[in-house]
Amino acid sequence: MTQPRRSRPPRLHGRAAGVVLAGGSGTRVGAGINKAFLSLAGRSIAAWGLNTLAAVEGIGLLVFVVRPEDLEHARFVDSRETDWPLEIITGGETRQESELFALRHLADRIDSGAVDTVLIHDAARPLVSHGLVSAVLHAARETGGAVPGIPADDIAAAGPGDSLAAGPDGHRGALVRVQTPQGFHAATILDAYEAAARDGFVGTDTASCAEEYTDIPVTWVRGEETNFKITYAQDLLLAQDVVSALGLRSG
Question: What is the domain-level CATH number for residue 129?
């Protein structure tokens, strides 16, 4: 027997769009399905990030980007696990192509001004906090682009020969482990992705495309150790431990 769709509270008004990418597989986790749809404390991994973004004031809509073969899983997440309706679309062959498809999906609303900022997040980072999403959104609106990151004290950039790269003051510059969500002025990042598509440029993440095709300063806000990406089976076990230790709940 089909269960009735859950009633949902009305959406908060906001001109930012949250995009959540779930284009990976479960191969390295050791699962037979996309890892975004594995269970974490009673809800799918993807539902955690989606619900967190939905709860941030200023985010007015959510776009969920999935592989064609995962559409049924995504519809289940939409109808049973998230607090707000999702706009579900299928992605491309690469992360960048999936981001481009999401931006094109929003293009009319970006052009009209209904969407002014876009935050792009990995579904495989389920434990991103409300505070971090809010901080990235605020910084993106202030400067045009923002990413969260963790200072990587155990990594140094290689310089010429056998030396380590140093900054202008003679000290090694800080390196940052970049996380998501990454937020950008919507019209600017849409134009950047269209230019990258014309040139065949493929970046490592949203920020790399912004740095290549825009003049906006991409600033960083301090990320969170708990905002790690689930890649291997031990990462999912760690996420379960974090949820239990902190008493977290999705939504």
Answer: 3.90.550.10
214 in a domain, yes or no? Answer: yes
Q: Is residue 113 part of a domain?
A: yes
Q: Could you tell me the pLDDT band of residue 227, with boundaries at 50, 70 and 90?
A: very high
- Total structural domains within the chain: 1
Per residue, the 3-state secondary structure of the chain, as one string, reads: CCCCCCCCCCCCCCCEEEEEEECCCCCCCCCCCCHHHCEECCEEHHHHHHHHHHCCCCEEEEEEEECHHHHHHHHHHHHHHCCCCCEEEECCCCHHHHHHHHHHHHHHHHHHCCCCEEEEEECCCCCCCHHHHHHHHHHHHHHCEEEEEEECCCCCCECCCCCECCCCCCCCCCCEEECCCEEEEHHHHHHHHHHHHHHCCCCCCHHHHHHHHCCCCEEEEECCCCCCCCCCHHHHHHHHHHHHHHCCCCC
Quick: pLDDT tens for 63-114.
999 999 999 999 999 999 998 899 999 999 999 999 999 999 999 999 999 9
pTM comes to 0.87
Domain assignment of residue 94, given as a range:
16-246
Within a domain: 251: no
Judged by average pLDDT, the poorest of 4-13, 41-50, 53-62 is: 4-13
